[in-house]
Amino acid sequence: MSKPVILAVDDDPQVLAAVRRDLRSHYGDNYQVIAASSGPEGLETVQELKDRSKTVAAFVIDQRMPEMTGTEFLVVARDVFPQAKRLLLTAYADTEAAIQAINDVGLDHYLLKPWSPPEEHLYPILDDVLDDWQAHADVPFDGIRVLGTTWSPSTYQAKTFLARNDVPYRFVDVERDADAARAANAATADGAGLPVVLLPDDTVLVDPTKADLAAAVGIHAIPEAPFYDLAIIGGGPAGLAAAVYGASEGLSTVLLEREAPGGQAGTSSRIENYLGFPKGLSGADLARRAIAQATRLGAELTTPAEVESVRADHAVKTIVLTDGTEVKCRALVVASGMTVRKLDVPGYARFEGAGVYYGAAATEASTYADRRVYVIGGANSAGQAAVMFSRTSSHVTMVVRSDFLEQKMSQYLVDQIAAIGNIDVLTGTRVLDVEGTATVESIRLQNIATGAEESRPASALFIFVGAIPHSSFLAGTVAMNDHGFIYTGVDVQERTDDWGLDRDPFPLETSAPGIFAAGDVREGAVRRVASAVGEGAVAVTLVHRYLDTV
Q1: In this structure, are strands 326-334 and 515-517 parallel, antiparallel, or unpaired?
Q2: Would you call 196 helix, strand, or coil by DSSP?
Q3: Fewest beta carbons less than 10 Å away: which of 312, 341, 394, 502?
Q4: What's the rounded Cα separation, in Å, for the pair 339 and 347?
């Protein structure tokens, strides 16, 4: 496969030469760097690249050019290569135009001239946007293939595990592809045991577990060391923040995640109000960036690592995984978050992964293109999913128990949904039943106020009916309320009799000294991504204070 292209355009010969030199020196091994000296010349180059079936990864464009501004160039170039990243070179006086370009052309970043040294002002930005391009670009594929059926729960689980762990793969439906069907039959003898996962090294996995997949693709599922300064349970925003700060501050740090880093936030199709991302970003993108940051700083991430129990001695905490592995640490941060609440209606269970999905299930968006889907729930995550599916599905219906969306949803999302023509909202409504044979065919609804019932055709249900804290593995070790939320700080003293030390518990410290809780699993937590990130960072500061006492 030929190298993807980075196209630089600037009318100043000296600047253009500098851009080309810096780009080639740092990215020449993996990208072809091409330069053009004007907007019209750049557009000719764009068309030539298209005609030659080349792939453009990024445009690096000067804003002020005599024949065409950078923004005007990007308007045209975006239509030819819509997936290419768009970066604007600008002097300080042009920043207002650059900010406007964020809305006009979906600008990914603007760079102030001069950018010397490039190691500080150019490469980190381009590294970030190119990583993002690689994660989402539709380029020729020669990697992992998952052979299965659209309606197979185990196929869905394999796809979800790979996608959420940022492992590229290609799904091939054996019901539609004769070659894939023959390959699956050859691997399984009778076609049973789907999915079949084909790896580039010719390894074949039949109906693999998450642990099998992790081992095959090089994801660490077992901690490398027996003892750590800091262990973190849960890889959502709070856990990832704790991993970043723990590793950066010199603590040997391991993060244990049962499914995939990102947590509940990682399944969000769009986060619009996270500071510093004016265009918004998906939960998966946020998780991917945090993972790269944590591992670069030295944190060890393991998945899938399901915790069975925790023992707390005075100076040592022992984490027991479901496979019997024990991990010991001096301090522990529990950031295990929430577990999705199941839809409590007849019929749903047999359709899980075959028309009933929990979370946004972005891996299934293409499956339900041009079909009618239902989003069950009325909080922000449900609204974000409805907006996402409206781009591909013929119609999206939100089913909401409350009387109006504003009760649980941010106003910006309410306004977005109201403006989208193929989304309708049924308020004051609940699901009574999910019906079908092999797959979901219809959904039976009830108006809560009147009791009136109706059955509607449906292809899929995406469920957002709340969550419960994932804390059962701590039963008997730390104090928690009747719902499973963990008491921390002053709540430990005010609501329990479990604190036995002369000092007061630190903020975020549980009833077990040296065990801290952060994020949604904690009683009193503010359920926002930014808050979870903050608590994860603060928890590490408190870990240092605790370690000074033992």
Answers
A1: parallel
A2: strand
A3: 502
A4: 21
Task: Indicate the pTM of the whole model.
Answer: 0.71
The answer to whether residues 171 and 222 touch, using CB atoms and an 8 Å cutoff, is no
- Could you report how far apart the first and last alpha carbons of the chain are, in Å? 57
Q: What is the DSSP letter of 341?
A: P
Selection from 207, 471, 461, 195 nearest residue 349 by Cα? 461
Report the alpha-carbon distance of residue 534 to residue 177 in Å, rounded. 48
The domains of the chain, with CATH numbers, are 5-136 (3.40.50.2300), 144-208 (3.40.30.10), 227-339+468-547 (3.50.50.60), 349-465 (3.50.50.60)
More confident residue, 343 or 515: 515
What is the rounded CA–CA span in Å between residue 128 and residue 58?
Answer: 12
pLDDT score, position 343: 77
Token pair recorded at residue 538: 């603060």
Going by their DSSP bridges, the two strands 429-436 and 440-447 should be labelled as antiparallel
> For the segment 250-279, what is each residue's pLDDT rounded down to a tens digit?
999 999 999 888 877 766 667 777 888 887
Token representation of residue 54: 């080349």
**Is there a contact between 196 and 183 (Cβ–Cβ < 8 Å)?**
yes
Whether the Cβ atoms of residue 517 and residue 488 lie closer than 8 Å to each other: yes
Predicted pLDDT of residue 279 = 78
The yes-or-no verdict on residue 105 having pLDDT over 80 is: no
CA distance linking residue 386 with residue 377, whole number of Å: 10
CA dihedral 290, 294, 296, 299 (to 10 degrees): -160
Q: How far is CA 393 from the centre of its chain?
A: 21
Burial 67-89 (b: 16+ CB within 10 A, else e): ebbbbbbbeebbeebeebbbbbb
Is pLDDT above 80 for 403? Answer: yes
Measured CA to CA, the distance from residue 202 to residue 208 in angstroms comes to 15
Helix (H) or strand (E) holding 398: strand 395-399
For residue 361, what are its two tokens? 């299930």
Cis amide bond preceding 153, omega within 30: no
Q: Which two tokens stand for residue 243?
A: 């991993």
pLDDT digits (tens, 9 = 90+) for 410-455: 998 999 999 999 999 999 999 999 988 888 899 999 999 999 999 9
Q: Which of 485, 532, 521 is nearest to 244 (CA)?
A: 532
* Closest by Cα among 50, 49, 6, 13 to 28: 6
Residue by residue, DSSP assigns 117-173 as SHHHHTHHHHHHHHHHHHHH------SEEEEE-TT-HHHHHHHHHHHHTT--EEEEE
CA 530 to chain centre: 15
Q: How many angstroms from the chain centroid is the CA of residue 388?
A: 14
Token reading at 297: 């700083």
Radius of gyration, alpha carbons of the chain: 26
